[in-house]
């Protein structure tokens, strides 16, 4: 009974961490969109901003889950980053982007989100 309760609370922690991550994503994408509208940013700055959003969002989720679990926080943070990436790719496929990601950029985003989540989990002690 207690083991089931612990598993359910960990699922809730994961869902809350993902919620925090995607709220951060939404807010920072809105900010980046506003800056693009007002400042006519070059493509390199936009690409860097998007990577920063991935890092910040996955880090936030990893940081949250690292605060909530007791052991192996870096693995939980890594898992949070991987789940964030998977949901991000599923949503991108559903939206149906006209220009598909290259394999190299997908791997890059996977590495960025995974390591950022892991770092967030490790820093919370």
Structure description:
- The chain has 125 residues and is mainly α.
- The protein has one domain (2-123).
- Helix content is 86%, strand content 0%.
- It contains four helices and no strands.
- The chain has helices spanning 2-39, 43-68, 73-95, 103-123.
- Helix 2 (43-68) packs across helix 3, helix 2 packs parallel to helix 4 and helix 3 packs antiparallel against helix 4 (103-123).
- The longest helix has 38 residues, at 2-39.
- The radius of gyration is 16 Å and the shape is elongated.
- The mean pLDDT is 88.
Helix/strand structural class: mainly alpha
- The total of beta strands comes to 0
Q: In this structure, how is the largest beta sheet organized?
A: none
How large is the share of residues in beta strands?
under 5%
Low-confidence stretches: none
- Average predicted confidence as pLDDT: 88
Tell me the Rg in angstroms. Answer: 16 Å
Number of helices: 4
Question: What is the element string, with H for helices and E for strands?
Answer: HHHH
How many structural domains? 1
Distance between the termini: 28 Å
Per the principal axes of the C-alpha atoms, what is the gross shape? elongated
User: Helix amount, in percent?
Assistant: over 70%
List keywords for this structure.
125 residues; mainly alpha; 4 helices; 86% helix
Protein topology:
Elements: H1 2-39, H2 43-68, H3 73-95, H4 103-123
Helix pairs in contact: 1-2, 2-3, 2-4, 3-4
Q: What would you say about this model in short?
A:
The chain contains 4 helices and no strands. With 125 residues, it is an all-alpha fold. The model has no long low-confidence stretch (mean pLDDT 88).
């Amino acid at each position: 009974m207690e083991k089931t309760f612990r598993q359910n609370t960990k699922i809730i922690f994961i869902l809350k961490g993902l919620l925090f991550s995607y709220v951060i994503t939404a807010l920072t994408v809105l900010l980046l969109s506003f800056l693009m509208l007002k400042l006519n940013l070059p493509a390199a700055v936009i690409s860097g901003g998007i990577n920063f959003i991935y890092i910040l969002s996955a880090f936030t989720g990893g940081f949250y889950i690292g605060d909530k679990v007791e052991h192996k926080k870096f693995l939980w943070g890594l898992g949070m980053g991987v789940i964030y990436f998977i949901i991000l790719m599923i949503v991108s496929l559903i939206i149906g982007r006209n220009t598909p990601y290259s394999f190299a950029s997908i791997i890059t985003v996977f590495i960025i989100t995974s390591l950022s989540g892991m770092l967030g989990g490790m820093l919370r002690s």
